Amino acid sequence: MSLEAVDLNLVLVLHHVLAEGTVVRAAERLHVTPSAVSNSLARLRGLLGDPLFVRRGRTVVPTPLARELAPQVATTVERLRVILEAGRKFNPDACTRSFTLASADNIGILPAIATRFAQSLPRASLRVVTLDHALASDGLASGDIDVLLGLPPTIGRDIRSEPAYTDRLVCAMWRKCAPAGRRLTLKRFLEARHVEVALQGKHAIDYVDGVLSRLGHRRSIALSVPQFALAAGCVIGTPYITMLPASMAKGLASALPLAVHRPPFELPAITILQLWHARSDADPGSMLLRAIIRRVGKEARV
Fold this sequence. Notes:
The chain is of the alpha/beta class. It is built from twelve helices and 13 strands. It has helices at 9-20, 23-30, 34-48, 64-85, 110-120, 131-137, 139-142, 186-191, 208-214, 228-235, 246-255, 284-299, and strands at residues 53-56, 59-62, 98-102, 125-129, 147-150, 159-167, 169-174, 193-199, 203-204, 220-225, 241-245, 258-261, 270-277.
């Protein structure tokens, strides 16, 4: 097959369908009709000899070949972007690109990032997705995600990282069940049942259980949820305790009937990383997004 005979726009179509997971959303990103995207996929199937995607409800699921191609396709698209922008200086005020950030639902940091993003890139758009989405889609490798904020258990060879901000965990509970004094005792903490924040039901994203284990204790988990805000809502009306980032606990406590206390044992500070793929190291837009996060992180120290 001759490369000269291939429409390179097909690579862009494949990239966006892989990133969006639906033909309709890919068409919106490409500013074409869904039927045009479907026609391009049909041509790709003929060229590659593979179905590439299988329909599942309103979404499409990539075949093993499509998943294998995803990182290479994302790298190709990013390199084409660099080539096309090489002849002109990056202008943040004129940039209309869509950026994607993966993060936990930390309302202590995300609104500040959104504010700074709007000031720095007034015509661009920012999509925030969950860490579950990032894990399920392998978003950094596939090119679906520009930056991930989190604490992944492992970091791939092609992934770059740096500290984004430091936070600490505090105890939150329904105000009516709060201790009479200002101090939450270890005895009360251990007697209570807890709401754990976890990813995909199994990857806990706090340090509490590890610290308690070293002290010879363990929590009794009553409920496991995927978001901090959901955990905060679930303790209301119950005697449960949950752990929240200090950066968001104050805001939630002003809006909900929550009492916030320091843990009755020493917990290490949590350094949240920002991670990105090596292919976007020199991309001006990605560099600016990382700089925004870096600046907000410095201002958000708790």
